[in-house]
Specification:
The chain has 288 residues and is mainly α. It is built from 14 helices and no strands. Helix 2 packs parallel to helix 5.
């Protein structure tokens, strides 16, 4: 409040774009000098970007892919270096937790996998797209485990997730009351906004169509792709590949696309063993 800029800030009542864990973890950064707070956030982003390829390289080796190539695919992407690290965004931390969850699922630690994925979603909602594929991969009705060579007990995965959700919800309620739930609505509200890099908005500019029409068409195509990929995973398809394609489809369909969102896709594409998915990820990098 003593800062002269304080009176000019108009967004103090806006819901956080992050899940409740990130505001809780970063509250202490309000006390040190601004340069220290920013440096801390950038350091956390940089450590996350170092952590993701460390996990990705291990996952790639487990899945029969080149570990070094998979690590470089994520860590040396220019959008990750410039925007995730330089911009101090928490998308890197979110994806680090998400990839740790996949690693836990691959190593038969279903309880930990569910808990860590809940923490990822509570850091930023974008990680929620991985949850249905992880869940379907543990269902006993599939012909073959989608994340591994055998099915995983769905009950343990759900128990871990629900236990983490209960703890996080209690902490968030003690800190924010029920207001912490408002942040999860922003993912949907952002679709009423548009960004210059969004593919539906680009299509509207090139064709002269109403942006609202292109957004609706893109949303319908995304939902259709999501259903198809979930069914494919349930029938024995590779859940990692499916989650990667679903994330790519989301990035292509969203009306609100920002450069650092690409880190949602890169770790999944890196370990997917799917060359078309990797080439499309690189193409989206070049476009942005």
């Amino acid at each position: 409040p003593r800062d002269p800029a304080s009176a000019e800030v108009t967004w103090t009542e806006a819901p956080s774009a992050s899940g409740p864990l990130f505001p809780l973890a970063t509250y202490p950064l309000a006390w040190p000098p601004l340069r220290v707070a920013v440096a801390t956030l950038k350091a956390a982003a940089a450590l996350s970007v170092l952590g993701i390829p460390a996990v990705v390289s291990r996952l790639a080796a487990w899945r029969g892919a080149d570990p070094l190539r998979a690590a470089a695919f994520v860590a040396l992407n220019p959008l990750v270096l410039v925007h995730v690290v330089g911009g101090a965004h928490n998308d890197g931390l979110t994806m680090l937790l998400a990839m740790l969850s996949i690693a836990a699922l691959l190593s038969a630690r279903e309880l930990s996998a569910g808990a860590v994925l809940a923490a990822a979603i509570a850091t930023k909602t974008s990680a929620a797209l991985i949850a249905p594929f992880a869940l379907v991969a543990t269902l006993p009705t599939g012909r073959k485990g989608a994340y591994t060579d055998r099915n995983r007990p769905v009950g343990r995965f759900l128990a871990g997730m629900l236990a983490a959700v209960a703890v996080i919800a209690l902490a968030a309620w003690l800190a924010f009351g029920w207001d912490w739930l408002h942040g999860f609505g922003l993912a949907g509200e952002n679709q009423s906004r548009t960004s210059y890099m969004s593919l539906p908005i680009l299509a509207a500019r090139l064709t002269g169509l109403d942006p609202g029409t292109t957004r609706i068409v893109a949303a319908v195509l995304f939902l259709a792709a999501l259903v198809y990929l979930l069914v494919w995973t349930w029938r024995g398809g590779d859940g990692v590949r499916a989650a990667g394609w679903a994330t790519l489809t989301l990035l292509l369909a969203t009306a609100w696309l920002l450069p650092w969102y690409l880190v949602w896709l890169l770790p999944l594409a890196a370990i997917s063993r799917d060359h078309p998915l990797q080439l499309l990820a690189l193409s989206l990098t070049a476009y942005q």
